Amino acid sequence: MSREIRIATRKSALALWQAEYVKARLEAAHPNLKVSLVPMVSRGDKLLDAPLAKIGGKGLFVKELETALLENEADIAVHSMKDVPMDFPEGLGLYCICEREDPRDAFVSNTYADLDALPAGSVVGTSSLRRQAQLLARRPDLNIHFLRGNVNTRLAKLDAGDYDAIILAAAGLIRLGFESRIAARIEVLDSLPAGGQGAVGIECRTDDAEIHQLLTVLHDQPTAWRVTAERALNKHLNGGCQVPIACYAELEGDQLWLRGLVGQPDGGRLLRAEGRADVSEAETLGIRVAEALLEQGAAGILQAVYGEAGHP
Ligand SMILES: NCc1[nH]cc(CCC(=O)O)c1CC(=O)O
Questions:
Q1: ipTM for the complex?
Q2: Per CATH, the architecture of 4-99+199-219 is what?
Q3: Pairing of strands 200-205, 165-169
């Protein structure tokens, strides 16, 4: 096989790690395949036109990679599934989901062993409303402070003494070699993860059958079923990037068990719902659990959050 695969990637440490991981696995499986990385420079100008600007936040970074695929500057884009919007542009789709890393949130602190060890009034860093809602529901005394930036930046801010603890996805820390920084993994019961957390997905052109075939060695069907159910829930709740929605699917034999949560950002109310279905019904299950959340009043909570964030 003489084909070359060009991987479009952002330049953050985590994005590069994920791209290198896919490159290494593709090369191992297909010895004659040439795989290269195409690191994307910022295209701030392109972000200003209306349709892109509407997508916002994380969606913008994905968009940049998608443009490279559509313009045939690259062949595949590697994403953290939790950052991938629900719908794809015409001509592109998700053709591979790799085996999931630890999906849990991680408690990271230089002083305290876990959440319960934090003294009253401690400062915890996270910019995720999902994490904030669940933290405050359990520990209303904590002070949640905004924490932005990539994984390295966030760890540096913790080390500078700005926070007593921070919450990050375990997966990102493990991939970047920072597993030893995890003081405690927070069980999913206490911090239900974001849909797709810990899973890496590969997007490519719909009509590129040769690439689809080459990618099959990286596909992990159990992860794909789980992430499909989670994304269906997010989609049904219209979950964008800054919303207090959590969901997590596990496999019990050939049954999917999906748990979903919508939380008031101040932790005052956490709505929970769950359901089980055959793996072939992953999407229906996601919609069903989302409906159960809506019946409890999820729309009101989400509407209040969108209002504050300035969304329509
Ligand atoms: N929001 C950014 C982001 N996107 C994916 C991960 C971690 C790795 C993953 O979930 O696959 C992170 C960092 C974090 O939330 O701590």
A1: 0.95
A2: 3-Layer(aba) Sandwich (3.40)
A3: unpaired
